[in-house]
Design a protein that fits this description.
Strands 3-2-1-6-5-4 form a six-stranded antiparallel beta sheet. Helices cover about 40% and strands about 25% of the residues. It has 14 helices and 18 strands. By secondary structure, the protein is α+β, with helices and mostly antiparallel strands.
Length: about 500
């Protein structure tokens, strides 16, 4: 009898008065009051090997003793739906038939009167395509080149493939219904439990993590573990992806990179030593000769000694910049922050040096401060290099006018320093690349200005390390303004009085 004719009969309230009508159906059918079975037809009793006593109350859930999470979940849904008076169609469960074989069955529930329901069970036969599909899935599960196991929500192992036993050296394949805690260490189990709880709580499909497996024979294996919920069930598929080879290659690469860094540092240090040592000797003796012959020097020889001095200083400065940049790029710099006063301990000294050079070119230099505090928590050497590089550029690219340095506190109380010059300025196009290493606006061997393009690049690196914001901009169409903001300003009032328009 088809489902449409069944529906017509189930709609007849006579079923409640005369339940024996259901004996005419070939499919297993039962009449329920709430979740208890009142009557069942012969097909039902035969198919599921049960005999219902008259006036007995048998709960639908307790009748089918199948240890399957999905079936139990669906039967619970069925009971809850009965309690709410709902209708459920095409609810698929696994039930054990008269041959003790577990088969897929479709349950159809119909409300025929208040608190009375008709339940029809139709076995679902697998077609040829489905059987082949299941065989293919089983074959893929068994032969895939990754360790796989299936567990339920209680962490009991339901199924595993051959690769799983081979990889983890478990030995026996009779592992079903055994807890996965008996296989792996506690840290793995903690992560697997965490994955299951996360998937259940967030109603998502998968969760993965990386872990280390300690071998019994010694050594370690590294895995990425992927935990995925199997659709329509409370079971979880766990895939173990062995990443030991990749981790080993990464370790070798890291070791090689570290070795290359060390070799680079050693090479740069040795070369710089071989250059600086003779240069310092040349400069020292040139200075000594200049002092010895100062009363006998004609203008040409005086100019020659000045050229030696400037050239030597340029070489030493270039070597220092290369060394410092090498330390920053390889991460071998010695960062030692401390609290100090920028104005009294650094800026005054550095400013006096470059003020002297500027005065030789008839450039006016001024320094002023209205800052509430000059105290910062930074690396003293790095801040000194920052100020030196900025002032060096200001003097180098300014031929007339003035250089102004001002210290002040912003709205947040942080120390700020502005250094403005009236030099040649910077094009707007080049401003975007100003902090790139070895980058210069005027490039090539015929460039008009000396330099290696490392000063501002290193300045930016040092600012980042010391949490200093730096901004370079054109100064209203004439020269350049460099702004520094010290985020690590010590926000107490300076002990020294404020300095107003100090002309050093």
């Amino acid at each position: 009898m088809d489902s449409s004719s069944n529906a017509e009969i189930t709609a007849n309230f006579e079923l409640v008065k005369n339940p024996r009508l259901i004996d005419f159906f070939s499919n297993p059918i039962a009449i329920l009051k709430n979740e208890n079975i009142l009557f069942a037809n012969k097909a039902f009793e035969t198919k599921f090997s049960v005999v219902l006593q008259p006036k007995s109350k048998t709960c639908i859930k307790s009748l089918f003793n199948v240890n399957d999470n999905r079936t139990l979940t669906n039967l619970n849904r069925l009971v809850r739906s009965i309690d709410h008076g709902d209708e459920i169609a095409d609810l698929t469960v696994q039930l054990r038939d008269e041959f003790s074989s577990v088969r897929n069955c479709k349950m159809h529930l119909k409300n025929i009167q208040k608190n009375y329901f008709l339940l029809e069970i139709t076995p679902v036969s697998e077609n040829t395509f489905q059987r082949k599909l299941n065989q293919t899935q089983t074959s893929c599960f068994e032969n895939v080149n990754q360790s796989i196991c299936i567990i339920n929500s209680r962490s009991e192992v339901i199924e595993t493939n051959s690769k799983f036993y081979e990889e983890f050296k478990i030995g026996s394949k009779k592992f079903n219904n055994k807890n996965i805690k008996d296989i792996f260490a506690d840290d793995w189990i903690t992560e697997i439990d965490k994955a299951i709880k996360f998937i259940t709580r967030e109603n998502t499909k998968n969760y993965d993590f990386e872990t280390e497996f300690l071998c019994v024979s010694g050594g370690s294996l590294f895995y990425k573990v992927d935990v995925s919920r199997i659709d329509g069930t409370d079971n979880f598929l766990i895939t173990f992806i062995n990443q030991s080879h990749e981790i080993g290659l990464l370790k070798k690469l890291t070791e090689a990179e570290e070795k290359a860094k060390n070799l680079k540092s050693i090479f740069v240090a040795q070369v710089s030593h071989e250059i600086r040592t003779p240069i310092n000797a040349i400069l020292s003796f040139a200075t000594l000769l200049k002092e010895e012959l100062k009363d006998k020097l004609n203008p040409e020889l005086q100019t020659g000694f000045d050229v030696i001095s400037r050239g030597g200083d340029r070489i030493v400065r270039t070597i220092n910049l290369i060394l410092d940049m090498s330390d920053v790029m390889t991460g071998t710099y010695d960062y030692t922050p401390a609290e100090f006063d920028v104005l009294s301990e650094l800026f005054s000294e550095v400013f006096l040096k470059y003020k002297k050079l500027a005065n030789e070119r008839n450039i006016e230099c001024t320094l002023s401060s209205e800052a509430q505090t000059h105290s910062v928590f930074c690396d003293n050497y790095m801040v000194k290099q920052i100020l030196s590089n900025i002032l060096d550029n200001a003097v180098k690219f300014t031929y007339e006018g003035k250089i102004e340095a001002s210290l002040y506190s912003n709205e947040s109380g942080r120390l700020c320093i502005d250094i403005c010059d009236t030099g040649i300025g910077i094009s707007e196009e080049y401003l975007a690349n100003i902090f790139e290493p070895f980058s210069q606006e005027d490039e090539g061997i015929k460039r008009r200005y000396e330099g290696n393009g490392l000063g501002l690049a290193l300045t930016k690196k040092y600012c980042d390390i010391n949490n200093i914001d730096i901004r370079v901009e054109n100064n209203n169409g004439r020269g350049v303004k460099v702004k520094l903001e010290f985020n690590n300003t010590m926000l107490q009032v300076s002990r020294s009085s404020r300095l107003q328009a100090i002309n050093l």
